[in-house]
Write a structure and sequence with these properties.
The structure is a homodimer.
Chain A: H1 12-18, H2 28-45, E1 51-55, H3 59-70, E2 76-81, H4 84-95, E3 99-104, H5 113-122, E4 127-131, E5 133-134, E6 139-140, H6 144-152, E7 156-160, H7 172-175, E8 179-181, E9 195-199, H8 201-208, H9 221-228, H10 245-261, H11 263-283, E10 299-303, H12 310-319, E11 325-326, E12 335-339, H13 347-365
Parallel strand pairs in A: 2-3, 2-4, 4-7, 7-8
Antiparallel strand pairs in A: 1-9, 5-6, 8-9, 10-12, 11-12
Chain lengths: 366, 366
């Protein structure tokens, strides 16, 4: 049982289709798989953006694709950093050639949107980027105000929703997000390996106005859509790179299961699972690191009590087939990270974890 | 039955492990999967290079990783172009910032190594890149002489062996290849999605001497090996991106099957399958486009006879569950591409294709 920050356990129905008969990546049947994938992914992102696909790499590849397509040398970017994954966005933006300014908050905290506005008033930027669900601290950064501020200052707004998508609403069009990137695992319920992204019209217009060639051929959005189908001519498809067929089967099935459950039900299930877990932790005398007002439901950062050996507990859990993760960076040894994602956002499965944790803690304290 | 240029049919035993229980990407068991993968991949590439892993993207991502790590703005590269995939290497090198000179040959032909030497004498280059097995024309570019010439002129030698690896010998160390990239499918026998690469000591030294930051964070070799284990400290592993666990299970199993069969046996099987197919084609009055002296065994470009409808034949085959591919670029409508890769390098399976082709051609001519 994978209760870490990811990979999460894929849904059993998703695992079943991994081995479905392979077809060619230009086979008419596979074209219909691609169409269904794009349409279901748009519904999940809450967008009508044509440019909405799973990129052929992990969530990190999708995010890098966003940065390398939207930014080029000479551009300015403002990146909100509330933990490691924000730092990583800043690093990717820097490698894309941009001058990057970061707005930082202490671990567990979030960024006051007014600070982003201040930064944009100081100097215009082409892009504002934030992490929606910071996997290293368990904090949720609200998007609405920053989206509005970015738009008011004529900046694009890009969001890392790797941990949030399919667990809490992302709502790309309603919020006003120009580009977003997630993953195929975590709350999505497929194995890791794909990086779902969406690019809105303002992002595409910015890409068309680039002064330099995008340094990546593999993740260049205009090339990738030669294969996925251009806007206005979605049936006109040509080879770019060989699609990861088996991974796409799995991802397609995961999207179907998400919509069969229904988005409101899925979000409620993740919320309820979190509340069940927090109540159970309370009964064990354990507390969460992240302040309640901006806690994520799917990623829980649990304080390790005084006198408890981090590594011994995690290995004792692993011996029972249960994975939780160490704290990240400065929180290593001080906290555990517990993911309640996809099929694991389930009280019965969470009770298995809580029971095991209780037994191990009691044994250690003896 | 996938007789196109890829994806090929994965081995059934490989498909079986796709759905094996998922573990965390930092789980001790998974670390042993990674170690076994690296060690088996080194044997297949014929190298002792520490930096030998499957990158988390398709074969194209691995090749782009090679170009973006080895080249930076201001560098010179010479690329041998004998078809589309050579053009693509040149395009990737250009996007990496290099000034690219191409040495080209007509479709079906290969490059005389003396022409590469001429180009290097004209002006030094940091990198010489070639495609070993050109999937668009079915031609095999011998590597030994170009490797020697590159080394004599103090240039790195990079090879696209996407179609050749596990079908014909690549022999990285014996030939003197500094970087090579392949895929997980085709002759490898796993689903598409991973890009096995190897970087030798001269390549790593060149990367360490870069003047600029590598524009890709995702494919930056020095970062990727934080996770796969640094040279000299292979057990010291830290998070980079979440590994595509299921794809790596499959790739690991494919490598095991390759070594269980034995490399000489596997190469002989691909060669024999090719000869069986060519004999069968001859009996049907069909011929190959690529001159015999540099034909690839695993990728056969078949001339479409006068009066035969390309698309109708391919769709009639597809209706029987058999895929072959259209000719690429200028060869579209004039040739078919038939891959005999992995499990399909088998006379019994090839006979199914030949029998179907015969029936369809007879029916069309009636």
């Amino acid at each position: 049982m994978l209760f870490g920050p990811g990979p999460s356990n894929p849904h059993p129905d998703v695992v079943d289709v991994l081995g479905a008969p392979m077809v060619g990546h230009l086979d008419p049947y596979f074209m219909s798989v691609m169409d269904g994938t794009m349409s279901d992914l748009r519904r999940l992102f809450g967008t009508t953006n044509h440019h909405t696909i799973p990129m052929s790499g992990t969530g990190s590849a999708g995010l890098e694709g966003i940065m390398l397509n939207l930014l080029e040398p000479g551009d300015d970017a403002v990146v909100a950093v509330i933990g490691y994954f924000g730092q990583r966005l800043a690093e990717m933006a820097k490698r894309a050639g941009a001058t990057v300014r970061t707005v930082e908050a202490p671990l567990g905290q979030i960024i006051d949107p007014a600070r982003i506005e201040q930064e944009l008033k100081k100097k215009q930027a082409k892009l504002v980027a934030v992490v929606h669900a910071e996997t290293s601290t368990g904090a949720c950064q609200p998007l609405e105000d920053i989206a509005r501020i970015a738009r008011d200052h004529d900046a694009l707004f890009a969001v890392d929703c790797v941990t949030s998508l399919a667990g809490i609403p992302v709502d790309v069009d309603a919020v006003g997000i120009d580009a977003a990137g997630s993953c195929s695992q975590k709350c999505m319920g497929a194995p890791p390996g794909l990086g779902p992204v969406t690019f809105g019209p303002r992002a595409i217009a910015a890409i068309e106005k680039r002064r330099t060639l995008c340094p990546t051929w593999y993740l260049d959005i205009s090339l990738v859509f030669q294969y996925w189908g251009k806007e206005g001519a979605p049936r006109d498809r040509a080879f770019h790179h060989t699609a990861p067929v088996a991974s796409l089967y799995a991802f397609r099935r995961a999207l179907e299961l998400i919509h069969e459950e229904g988005l409101p039900n899925r979000y409620a299930r993740h919320r309820d699972a979190h509340e069940h877990f927090v109540a159970g932790l309370g009964a064990l005398g354990l507390s969460l690191f992240t302040p309640a007002e901006h806690r994520l439901p799917m990623l829980n950062v649990v304080n390790i009590p005084e006198g408890v050996d981090d590594v011994r507990v995690r290995f004792a859990l692993l011996e029972r087939g249960i994975e939780i993760a160490a704290g990240f960076g400065p929180l290593k040894g001080k906290a555990w990270r517990v993911g309640l994602m996809g099929v694991n956002a389930d009280p019965a499965r969470i009770d298995v974890l809580l029971d095991a944790l209780e037994e191990i803690l009691v044994a250690q304290r003896r």
